[in-house]
């Protein structure tokens, strides 16, 4: 199978390339040649720009295209139209952020999608990220003549994750000592190992599937407690966990995601369903999951191999954490 990947040298793109090569398939990359240019010297890398320079895609054909880098509907429309007739399946990587809200538990693929307030916006780095992705899905479905596969992942984790949102926890627990964690330990978490996502995408292409899939995991939601235990075991750490009331954290201006990665306050009804996404359709189609222990161990091993010491993009520093723990003792 010959597969074109729009992008291909960051995180999910890397996982897709490696899974295709391992399966004996042929990945071909299309990008600007700016990110990790040294990777995959034996893989064909076509150079161009999604926004107006698709010349390198002319007079070529593939079995499928996987679009890992589509954020702006106008630009996604260009590639969908260009690749019609050049491949049988267009795979678009979307997100669960396309849903209109997370107030409901067990959100399935038919849940209403978010609407863009400003039809001229192309600012995918802010609040318009989800609505823009929803419009990108629409442009693919309207402009590509062939099978369309849309994957809506939740949080994607594992080695080479540029966000550091999951990586923070294996790293922090590996340092040992008292670790500040938002209470309660039973809080649901959902995420998917990037390698599991890549394998499922390739699986669905080969099955000649089409349609939309929510893709997150594990089969039953993990918890903050189970994640931290897996981190402690992977790191052979002596860390102990201090479960801090959410009200204390919010009163002290501790911010979800930026200060405490993965934390979605349970007292916020707006996000009650964020970690309760329905993945039954993907499970029936064969979505599989690596053990949590493997994802944690591999992520920690990768993080330790980074040139460094690398500064994580998220998570509070140790001094701030210590200050809060001391204050919480008197709370």
TrEMBL record:
Recorded superkingdom: Bacteria
Domain NAD-dependent epimerase/dehydratase, residue spans: 3-215
Pathway info: Carbohydrate metabolism; galactose metabolism
GO terms of biological process kind: monosaccharide metabolic process
Sample GO molecular function, one term: UDP-glucose 4-epimerase activity
SUPFAM superfamilies in alphabetical order: NAD(P)-binding Rossmann-fold domains
Cellular component, GO, one term: cytosol
Pfam families: Epimerase
InterPro entries named in the record: Epimerase_deHydtase, NAD(P)-bd_dom_sf
PANTHER family: NAD-DEPENDENT EPIMERASE_DEHYDRATASE DOMAIN-CONTAINING PROTEIN, UDP-GLUCOSE 4-EPIMERASE
Family as reported in the entry's similarity comment: Belongs to the NAD(P)-dependent epimerase/dehydratase family.
Record's protein name: UDP-glucose 4-epimerase
Higher taxonomy: Bacteria, Bacillati, Chloroflexota, Anaerolineae, Anaerolineales
């Amino acid at each position: 199978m010959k597969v074109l990947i729009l992008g291909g040298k960051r995180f999910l793109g890397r996982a897709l390339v490696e899974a295709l090569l391992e399966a004996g398939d042929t990945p071909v990359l299309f990008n600007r040649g700016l990110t990790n240019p040294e990777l995959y010297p034996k893989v064909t890398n076509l150079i161009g720009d999604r926004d107006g320079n698709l010349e390198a895609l002319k007079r070529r054909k593939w079995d499928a295209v996987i679009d890992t880098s589509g954020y702006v509907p106008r630009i996604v429309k260009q590639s969908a139209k260009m690749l019609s007739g050049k491949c049988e399946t267009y795979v678009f990587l979307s997100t669960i952020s396309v849903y209109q809200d997370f107030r409901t538990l067990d959100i399935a693929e038919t849940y209403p999608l978010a609407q863009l307030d400003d039809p001229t916006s192309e600012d995918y780095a802010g609040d318009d990220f989800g609505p823009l992705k929803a419009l990108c899905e629409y442009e693919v479905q309207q402009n590509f003549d062939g099978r369309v596969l849309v994957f809506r992942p939740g949080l994607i984790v594992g080695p080479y994750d540029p966000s550091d949102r999951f990586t923070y926890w294996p790293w922090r627990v590996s340092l040992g000592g008292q670790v500040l964690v938002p209470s309660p330990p039973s809080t649901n978490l959902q995420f998917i190992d990037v390698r599991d996502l890549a394998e499922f995408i390739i699986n669905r292409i080969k099955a000649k599937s089409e349609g939309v899939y929510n893709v997150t995991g594990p089969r039953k939601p993990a918890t903050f407690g189970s994640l931290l235990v897996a981190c402690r075991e992977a790191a052979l750490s002596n860390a102990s966990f201090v479960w801090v009331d959410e009200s204390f954290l919010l009163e002290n201006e501790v911010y979800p995601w930026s200060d405490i990665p993965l934390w979605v306050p349970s007292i916020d009804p707006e996000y009650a369903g964020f970690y309760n996404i329905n993945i039954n359709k993907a499970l029936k189609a064969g979505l599989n999951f690596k053990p949590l222990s493997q994802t944690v161990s591999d992520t920690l091993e990768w993080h330790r191999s980074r040139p460094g010491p690398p500064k994580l993009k998220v998570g509070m520093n140790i001094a701030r954490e210590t200050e809060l723990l001391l204050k919480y003792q008197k709370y």
